[in-house]
TrEMBL record, chains A, B, C, D:
<dbReference type="Pfam" id="PF00710">
    <property type="entry name" value="Asparaginase"/>
</dbReference>
<dbReference type="GO" id="GO:0004067">
    <property type="term" value="F:asparaginase activity"/>
</dbReference>
<protein>
    <submittedName>
        <fullName>Asparaginase</fullName>
    </submittedName>
</protein>
<feature type="active site" description="O-isoaspartyl threonine intermediate">
    <location>
        <position position="12"/>
    </location>
</feature>
<feature type="binding site">
    <location>
        <begin position="83"/>
        <end position="84"/>
    </location>
    <ligand>
        <name>substrate</name>
    </ligand>
</feature>
<feature type="binding site">
    <location>
        <position position="54"/>
    </location>
    <ligand>
        <name>substrate</name>
    </ligand>
</feature>
<feature type="domain" description="L-asparaginase N-terminal">
    <location>
        <begin position="4"/>
        <end position="159"/>
    </location>
</feature>
<dbReference type="InterPro" id="IPR037152">
    <property type="entry name" value="L-asparaginase_N_sf"/>
</dbReference>
<dbReference type="InterPro" id="IPR036152">
    <property type="entry name" value="Asp/glu_Ase-like_sf"/>
</dbReference>
<dbReference type="InterPro" id="IPR027474">
    <property type="entry name" value="L-asparaginase_N"/>
</dbReference>
<dbReference type="InterPro" id="IPR006034">
    <property type="entry name" value="Asparaginase/glutaminase-like"/>
</dbReference>
Amino acid sequence: MDAISILACGGTLDKDYDPLRGELVFSQSHLPTLLAQANHTLPLSVNAVMLKDSLMMDDTDRESIYQACLADHSEQIVITHGTDTMPETAIYIADRLANLPHKTLVLTGAMRPFQLGQSDASFNLGAALMAAQLLPAGVYLVMNGQVFLARQVQKDRARGVFVPKRSA
Amino acid sequence: MDAISILACGGTLDKDYDPLRGELVFSQSHLPTLLAQANHTLPLSVNAVMLKDSLMMDDTDRESIYQACLADHSEQIVITHGTDTMPETAIYIADRLANLPHKTLVLTGAMRPFQLGQSDASFNLGAALMAAQLLPAGVYLVMNGQVFLARQVQKDRARGVFVPKRSA
Amino acid sequence: MDAISILACGGTLDKDYDPLRGELVFSQSHLPTLLAQANHTLPLSVNAVMLKDSLMMDDTDRESIYQACLADHSEQIVITHGTDTMPETAIYIADRLANLPHKTLVLTGAMRPFQLGQSDASFNLGAALMAAQLLPAGVYLVMNGQVFLARQVQKDRARGVFVPKRSA
Amino acid sequence: MDAISILACGGTLDKDYDPLRGELVFSQSHLPTLLAQANHTLPLSVNAVMLKDSLMMDDTDRESIYQACLADHSEQIVITHGTDTMPETAIYIADRLANLPHKTLVLTGAMRPFQLGQSDASFNLGAALMAAQLLPAGVYLVMNGQVFLARQVQKDRARGVFVPKRSA
């Protein structure tokens, strides 16, 4: 079995509560704890590309994520990412997919931080890792139990879920 | 999108601690709580077929589970089940697959009860629901982030994980 | 046994994460859930006076809390409150203690919300309810496993704990 | 401030779920994790005397616990213990109280293991540590938010709570 790569790029999934500041912050990726609980046997490598709120990401960040995908030898890559601009990053990578032949790239994240309990993070990561193994090469977004193509999804901010993109 | 069905059949996933007896018992399925946390948008129906330790299951129970699959109109069915005899039930259904045309059936479960926290249940259910949507008709077992064919998997009890079946 | 009263006044203890806004907010008091987990047998009444960040409280709020203490028939009162101005409210009530004869008033709270897991809320509330039963009439602050007199405590914001007040 | 001692003697509080055996077992004391969450500032020492189900304890075990109390230099001692025979151990120590002058000894425990989440352990330990600081020398049992004298308490097994002992 070939190795699967997880590229941690921050987002709500990886935030935690800072009791001194009374707000949510990034300190480290909590994916190793999540994956240990998951009791998985996948040949996984986990690398932190950045720990960033996706509202704060610009194309320089998206280029960094794309370069991390380029440099990664795995053909199955899961990218954990903030939900607010997840579709933008998906499209940024999809626009350069010709340079990423044979790679299945799946973006996922969470609406509630893993460290806060009662989170959707483990469910989403289980779904994303399965999708990365079963889907053909391409760029996908996996959230809410569903799989979307990179260019055909948008976030419904009022409901906090992803839905098919309305055509212009 | 067609509906997906979850058939709850018990197992560790659905056990909880009974403080009066000091042991793990079944009271009700906790899948509704798990699915609410998962923030999913799938057209799901959840039905409890039985809440049973899979070590206590016999072919009468397996026939009940198979009959529930037969009666279910969904083409994508996830069966939550105890891990100890999950492969036996998978084979029981696979032996009758000719009567279940067009159906993708995925068995999953957990090594630690959902209600006890730090559980693999949400990760496994996320993976199983994704596999049910992406795999062709057939009977599968999804655990530890991996997908196995019904006849090609066994539990490694010493490690608490599923592995490819050794050929006889 | 006489009844004990809990007056919920907000603070970190009662905040929860709002996935749509991505921040911590008040929706309802989570004390009933905390108390159910605690498996207590005390004759408790729980009343929400306000759900407010204590940095946002002014003397109008402190007067409301004091009036709620005056109106309460219990002689043992626990007040859950934000940590940032907990000493100020304690002193506000202590200044009016002559109007609250025979009452033992204990302020407590949490540095991490109960709803986020891994919280100090249950430990603090257990300590505060015990202190309210054992201490003589007066105004106290119970945090970090310790009991302080109202006028002799301050928050060490850098460490996130309460310490004896330095004399001027 | 004098040091407070916690003597860990097992019981439900310190059990955890073993996924390989599918049952609750002792591996190590989880009090350090509980106390870290509690954010306490007490001068505490924690020592594991034994990790045992209190239904399995006999007078040899009670003698070991009593000897640990004798050897302990703290005047405030909290003993974590299984609930089923907590009153028996409390009386065993109370019978030898003349040898433990100036010591306040408080037994506590939990009905649901700390490691399983939604536990009463933190609430009970917060209450017990406060009671140890405020009560005069003697042997007490702190559970369900209440304090009982060693000889005046019994467990109501049907309800899973402690109640005053019925006189003979």
